[in-house]
From TrEMBL:
InterPro entries: Metallo-depent_PP-like (IPR029052), PhoD-like_MPP (IPR018946), PhoD-like_sf (IPR038607). SUPFAM superfamilies: Metallo-dependent phosphatases. This is CALCINEURIN-LIKE METALLO-PHOSPHOESTERASE SUPERFAMILY PROTEIN. CDD domains: MPP_PhoD. Residues 75-199 form the PhoD-like phosphatase metallophosphatase domain. Keywords: Membrane, Transmembrane, Transmembrane helix. The chain crosses the membrane at residues 324-342. It comes from Salix viminalis (Common osier). It comes from the Eukaryota.
Length: 371
């Protein structure tokens, strides 16, 4: 992610060149095929959607950075969405990269995320040749909807803020009978793995990793890291994968991180390992399961009215006391601090007045009565 708000094209291009000349990234480019899409700061403006005026110029800059061929369809379309197919027959992996910026309606509109042309393209991709695994890359989180539980303190971008679009996405995957699907995402400056069991007929995962250069604990003084971790643990979420193997109790990781996908084709059944790792390559959270788990079982799990089930009940549907406990704790803490400050001020003022009267009595001659 390239930092900066609505950077001029020349400045954005300069930052791309600086990133491209980084020794570590240069080594990666020479040993690995690098593919990608953009998020808001690569796009050009924080939290921006289709309203951003510099998207046409910045699309060219991103594709230049990714060494996209000059005759690539990505250079002729509106948006940087694309797909790839890797591996031999029987072990093929399809990678679909979405563009959640170019056509996205404003936040709070519950409008479109992908736009009509990209929806048509995505339907064609999911109906295309089958693959053992399909990885859908979204720059913002698909499953988690932390904004449902962190507002009004702060909000995060996600598909959960466009519930009609997210339902459409899940329905499209189910209708095309595409199996082996999971998501990868970023944007939030921390790592976590989410799971949703009640969407497409089998458990669907979302591996969130962000970022290699920017992370929430890196953005605050070191002494506040424990507070960040406490808030992450306290924030209610029904979708996050909780495991005893997590580095921290919250099963989130707010330091620089990256995501890793490991497929073991030699085992029976084939196993899939999804992880978030620290900058040294050690896992901080992860999940391992047989690939057959990502196949439709025919019956969709359901939740009864008033019942709340992990990996099935969305955060937005939690009881309000649970959903807003972070905000409740914050406002109660602030109120308590203000009360203590007020009480201390009154006490101090009373002490000063009492001292004043003592000095007054000490100066005033006593003749049998005070007044």
């Amino acid at each position: 992610m390239l930092l900066g708000l609505s950077l001029p094209p020349k400045e954005l291009e300069s930052r791309y060149q600086k990133a491209k000349s980084n020794p570590g990234y240069s080594r990666l480019r020479h040993t690995t095929q690098v593919v990608g899409t953009w998020d808001d700061h690569d796009y050009g403006l924080n939290d921006a959607g289709k309203e951003f005026g510099g998207k046409i110029t910045n699309q060219k800059l991103l594709l230049d950075f990714l060494d996209e061929p000059q005759d690539s369809p990505r250079r002729k379309q509106e948006g940087v969405y694309t797909s790839y197919m890797f591996g031999p027959v029987g072990r093929q992996i399809k990678v679909i990269l979405l563009d959640t910026r170019y056509h996205r309606d404003p936040l709070r509109s519950d409008g479109s995320v992908l736009g009509s042309s990209q929806w048509t393209w995505l339907e064609k991709e999911l109906n295309g040749p089958k693959s053992a695994i399909t990885i859908i890359g979204s720059s913002v989180q698909v499953i988690s909807n932390l904004s449902a539980t962190t507002r009004p303190l702060f909000s995060l971008e996600s598909w959960g803020r466009f519930p009609k679009e997210r339902n459409r996405l899940f329905k499209l995957i189910a209708d095309t009978k595409r199996e082996g699907v999971f998501f990868i995402s970023g944007d939030v400056h921390f790592g976590e793995i989410s799971r949703y069991d009640c969407s497409i007929g089998y458990p669907v995962y979302d591996v969130t990793s962000s970022g290699l250069t920017q992370a929430v604990e890196k953005a605050v003084p070191h002494v506040f890291s424990l507070i960040v971790r406490f808030v992450a643990w306290l924030t209610p979420t029904t979708m996050r994968v909780i495991s005893k193997n997590c580095r921290f109790r919250s099963c989130t990781y707010g330091q620089p991180n990256f995501g890793a996908i490991e497929i073991v084709w030699s085992t029976t059944p084939v196993t899939l390992k999804l992880e978030v790792r620290d900058i040294k390559g050690y896992p901080v959270t992860g999940v391992k399961f047989p690939l057959v788990e990502l196949q439709s079982r025919g019956l969709m799990p359901s939740v009864k009215a008033g019942e709340y089930r992990r990996h099935c009940s969305l955060e937005v549907n939690l009881p309000w006391m649970i959903k807003y406990r972070l905000a409740i704790l914050f406002y109660c803490s602030v109120s308590g601090m203000l009360f203590l400050i007020l009480e201390a001020s009154i006490s101090c003022s009373s002490h000063m007045n009492f001292s004043h009267w003592l000095k007054f009595f000490a100066r005033k001659p006593f003749h049998g009565e005070l007044f």
